[in-house]
Amino acid sequence: MADASSPRVLSTAGFYRRWLGPQLARDEGVDAEQLSQTALQALAQVSLRRRWPGISSVLEGVATELQRRDLRLEQVLFGCRFSNPVGLAAGFDKNGVAAGVWDCFGFGFAEVGTVTWHGQPGNPKPRLFRLAAERAALNRMGFNNKGAEAMQRTLERQALPAPGHRPAVLGINFGKSKLTPLDQAPDDYAASLECLAPMADYAVINVSSPNTPGLRDLQDSTQLRRLVERLRRLPACPPLLVKIAPDLEDDAIDGIARLAYEEGLAGVIAVNTSLDRLGLGQRLIAQTGRTLAEEAGGLSGDPLRYRAVEVIRRLRASAGPALPLIGVGGISSAEAAWERIAAGASLVQVYTGWIFEGPDLVPRILEGLISQLDLHGFRHLSEAIGSGAPWK
Ligand SMILES: Cc1cc2nc3c(=O)[nH]c(=O)nc-3n(C[C@H](O)[C@H](O)[C@H](O)COP(=O)(O)O)c2cc1C
């Protein structure tokens, strides 16, 4: 069992704070995308060699520091066993290169992708900007990824345990290739899913990225129904979830909840990045000299927190407790994670908050959740989901 208080010569969290903290505290400096890429390339090498003696002992040290095991946090949802409710959100490991190591960072699940059928370079750089003071980010990456067949090879090379036997659940998030016209989207998604279905514990239909023209139109219920029905016809379709935008009107959120029920979706992930500038329209982006209102892209991080909670509340009210919800957007503390669970999320994901806070955000959230269960007298996390219980 991990003991976070035990002195270690070089803890993962200490290393992160010391070397990356100063970079992350400023908008300028090392390019945000470059920083993530460098870390990911290193983790990719580690994942390929994770059974080598020297590397496995380093990973064990990281796991000892960051993992927290507690039966009260375990859940089985849509046929997947989650050892804890905190996951890595889509977009960080777009090609699945580090799929074999995310459990060591304490995550109960990780979502790789967005992957598209055709590999594509994404939008011109710079396309990811830190907003350090607000603990937020603006990105217009545009689904840069190597394509579904390349992801299949990447995952195979890492020799992951089979679905259902992994220490952390692996979700794969699917998007539409930029060059595929919108009316052919169902076949484009289906080609990727068919290729990767055997490796996914669950699959996500991403219809909410703001950076692929027209993609969000697929959230319209007629189009989404056509897409879901196409994917359900695949011979071996994993549990299917839909990821939605924070900028939907209430009626559209209710429509998604209805469709999820009628089509037997495994769950809904809310939310993706926002096109709304969330009160930050006049904020200057240092690298371009333009305001957030003038820049294209989706906003993530702390400013998204309250809207993301509202969407989860609406989905829960509309769909009831039977539909699993995954809450994401602006979670950078145990309190924000608890708030999302109390609003109706069974699981949460982190991205921007994890970058700013560092790897010990995951154990801090898990410890916070356990102490809230104690304080409220709940025997298991499931009692907290949708309870509205306040942070104590
Ligand atoms: C740089 C960046 C890239 C992202 N790429 C994807 C993506 O490929 N697919 C996706 O579904 N979401 C993507 N997201 C959205 C995140 O998964 C998440 O929904 C959003 O950032 C809100 O969570 P956060 O506030 O914790 O970052 C991306 C976010 C960021 C910051």
Q: How would you sum up this structure, described in words?
A:
The chain starts with 11 loop residues before the first helix and ends in an 8-residue tail after the last helix. It has twelve helices and 15 strands. The strands form four sheets. It has an eight-stranded parallel β-barrel with strand order 3-4-7-8-9-10-14-15, surrounded by five helices. It has a three-stranded antiparallel beta sheet with strand order 5-6-13, with no helix packed on it. With 392 residues, it is α/β, with parallel strands linked by helices. It is globular, with a radius of gyration of 20 Å. The protein binds flavin mononucleotide. Flavin mononucleotide binds at residues 89-91, 94, 114, 128, 137, 139, 141, 143, 173, 206, 209, 243, 272-273, 300-301, 304, 328-331, 350-353. Flavin mononucleotide binds next to strand 6, strand 13 and helix 10.
Using brief descriptors, characterize the structure shown.
alpha/beta; 3-stranded antiparallel β-sheet; binds flavin mononucleotide; TIM Barrel; 8-stranded parallel β-barrel; 392 residues; 15 strands; 12 helices; disordered N terminus
Short recap of the structure:
By secondary structure, this protein is an alpha/beta fold. The protein is 36% helix and 15% strand.
CATH C-level class: Alpha Beta
Shape: globular
Strand order of the largest sheet: 3-4-7-8-9-10-14-15
- The chain-level mean pLDDT equals 93
Instruction: Return the CATH architecture.
Output: Alpha-Beta Barrel
Helix amount: 25-40%
Q: Report the uncertain regions.
A: 1-8
- CATH H-level superfamily title: Aldolase class I
